[in-house]
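Design review, sub-item: ligand-bound model
Attendees: FS, YL, KQ
YL presented the inputs for the adenosine monophosphate complex:
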Amino acid sequence: MNTDILVLAEHFKGEATEITFEMLGVARTLAAALHGQVAAVVIGADTARLAARLGAADTVLAVEQAPAAMMSSESTVPLLQQLLARRPARLVLVAGTNICMGIGAKLALRLQWPYVNFCKAVNATDGVLTFTSLLFGGKILADLRLPDNRGIVSLYPGSFPPDAGQSERAPTVEKIDLPVEAGRVVFKRLIEPDATDVDITKQEVLVAVGRGIESQDNLSLAEDLAAVLQGAVCASRPVIDQGWLPLTRQVGKSGMTVKPKCYLAAGLSGAPEHVEGMKNSALTIAINKDAAAPIFDVAHYGICGDLLEILPVLTEAIKARKGA
Amino acid sequence: MLKMVPDVVEELVVAADGKSLDQDTLRMILSEPSDHALEQALLLKEKHGGRVTVVTLTAPEVDEALFKALAKGADQAIKLNVDQTVVGSLATARALASWLRADPQRQAPDTLLLTGSYAIDDLEGEMGPCLAEMLQWPFVGVVTGLALDASGQKVTAIKEFFGGLRGEYEVDLPAVIGIQAAARPPRYVPIAKIRSFMKSATLGAAGVAPPDPAFALEISRMYVPEATGRAVMVEGSPEEASRRLVEILHQRGIV
Ligand SMILES: Cc1cc2nc3c(=O)[nH]c(=O)nc-3n(C[C@H](O)[C@H](O)[C@H](O)COP(=O)(O)OP(=O)(O)OC[C@H]3O[C@@H](n4cnc5c(N)ncnc54)[C@H](O)[C@@H]3O)c2cc1C
Ligand SMILES: Nc1ncnc2c1ncn2[C@@H]1O[C@H](COP(=O)(O)O)[C@@H](O)[C@H]1O
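KQ shared the predicted structure:
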């Protein structure tokens, strides 16, 4: 039996996001293994323009909606459920992003299908599908099977090649009219980040601090180091949540995606949500007192030790080198 | 809704069955987003009044987390008779939903149900959206700001997207909100105060029918990931390691 795959395209400000192409690439692999077809669903305004980019799908199902609508589980889940009633599929791929959070879990419950969260690898050897989930902040992996290859899979952003989901082909677009329910969750406005602070995405060198910095006073150790490297200080979520640095300095899933020449990560564990935002740095150096911290799997160089001791010594060593 | 999770600072050991974690070696702590959810509830109570109830399933160390919540200002702490360590998110949501349904007071029109946005042990879902779906209440997750509307019938929630972009939503009550971070960091409470609550306060207990674990996933294997690109470790004293690091930075044209 053919297994059709549905991909819920994610878009933001009128553009398909990178995860959409990652999902389409995965869908193509799954479709090849299961002899199925790929359908992409776009829900939003100006679906024709969005659909034209989704040629990796065999069909694009376009559900036109008012411009102000912002993707949310509240509005999307009922639409997907109606769509699936008309266009049966056995696998639904959703984005493991903040925007789409909740869509997969709710849809799974409505359909009584299993749900795989945090999927970072898919294997489709001999028609047998295995989905690998990342658990416990990246410390454990689990290989999962879906009975009858039926289920909903949330793909973790940045885990799959987006190129595999790009195509110049013009897809077949089918417009679908579906009634939109008046929501109990109303999107009011988008809040842009404060533009007056340093733009960490434009820095060549970043000194990133995590919870290991322990107090606001210790931040000066990172600032001194960033100063001699002509870079800026950024941080993981717990440091921002403490209010020690502004939100504009957060790197990761909810924060900025950075790609500096050098990322020096001190006292942060390397949780997947953080790594998502810095994994393409040209050179990553990690300082952590826990030799087993996952950040050492991402970094090129590592020092196992106390950052409070190492940062000032490193700052002095750089000063000395520059003076020489 | 408070959840206990393994402390990932400790080494995690896969059990002999190869499909679960070895419970004996786990150290359980309160999930960080849960702690933020409690803080946000206490902040709302301080501003608008109302009552804060914390609810958990049965789990190691959970009593201490509940007494701590009472010491911080929660009005009531309730532990359900379902063992958290053997059920997934979905069954957890079922257990919590049946507790909520058992008394109409618990679904009053001004009820705000705060969960942590995500816990780190998720395999098969997210508790908040599942619970919202079961109760047919609205849900917004990854929330970092929450305010009660003047009418008392709505909340304004700020949800994080990415790149520092956030969205403002208006949500009708009753609602389930997944808290990512409270408006301020979780408050500190001295151990002595927690101890005194342990002596004087009592935890409520409630029984619900064992939740149905239907349409669960099949786990074929759980394992510690093999390091793919392990960092080259720079050894030696801080001085020696720093000197070597400066050489590396120099070679790369950074210093
Ligand atoms: C939906 C969602 C979105 C998220 N978005 C983001 C995001 O955008 N950015 C982000 O960063 N996180 C994000 N997170 C949170 C993420 O899951 C982690 O909780 C967070 O990244 C952990 O930060 P950390 O590494 O600083 O802290 P921890 O994980 O607590 O790590 C601290 C590390 O410091 C080390 N350490 C302690 N003291 C010292 C010392 N003296 N010297 C050296 N090392 C020391 C410890 O060994 C430990 O490894 C998000 C989570 C969710 C659920
Ligand atoms: N066993 C539980 N008892 C109470 N609350 C829970 C439980 N499991 C999950 N939650 C709540 O749901 C949030 C998200 O958990 P999860 O869906 O497992 O990621 C947690 O932070 C808790 O607030």
